[in-house]
Write a structure and sequence with these properties.
The chain is globular and about 45 Å long. The chain is built from 11 helices and 5 strands, in the order βββαββαααααααααα. It has 3 domains: about 60 residues, Beta Barrel (OB fold (Dihydrolipoamide Acetyltransferase, E2P)), CATH 2.40.50; about 70 residues, 5' to 3' exonuclease, C-terminal subdomain (DNA polymerase, domain 1, Orthogonal Bundle), CATH 1.10.150; about 45 residues, Helicase, Ruva Protein, domain 3 (Orthogonal Bundle), CATH 1.10.8. Helix 9 crosses helix 11. It is an alpha+beta fold and about 210 residues long. A 5-stranded antiparallel sheet has the order 3-2-1-4-5, covered by helices on one side.
Amino acid sequence: MIGRLTGMVIEEDDGTTVLDVNGVGYELVMPLGTIGRSKADPEGRVTIFVHTHVREDQFSLFGFASEGDRLAFRTLIGVSSVGPKTAIAVLSALPAHELGQAIARKELGKLTSISGIGKKTAERLLLELKDKLSILQAAPPRGSDGAGLVAAAPPSSSNGELLARALVNMGYKAGEADRAIEQLGGKVVELPLADLLKEALAVLSK
């Protein structure tokens, strides 16, 4: 079983990342923003915490920036009918710490807003994770020391503020978030948040 890898990112495409470890390329599926939050050494190598998933003829590696994120993933896949892909989608939308807050506050709408999470699955998450809040809330907020994280935005926040918070939570710097929002221009007030996030990520990938 593979528990941790340290190497250079050589490829990122369609939800997967290839990490070169001493000449061997490991393909990893990771939540959005994982590389940005991972610790890097002076040579640019990042350390990724790995969950090895073996199921019949399938062998998959899922990568995380911290042990807390990996533990949150393992907690999620322990929920009835929640598989690895769904767990990755949840952690891409909500950091482990924020997921814990959403469960504690019984925020069904926040869970159903995640792609692939319907009402029944969201209700199941609220029910089965309520006794595991200590695991989720023990995971540190995204960002190694919490610096630069934006506090939860009130319902009246503009799309720009919500988008900036989402990007920072994914591991981008505040300045990078501001640059993406500036380039999106008028789209910030015209498009729904989900579409804005996709366009902002495209801007930041260039």
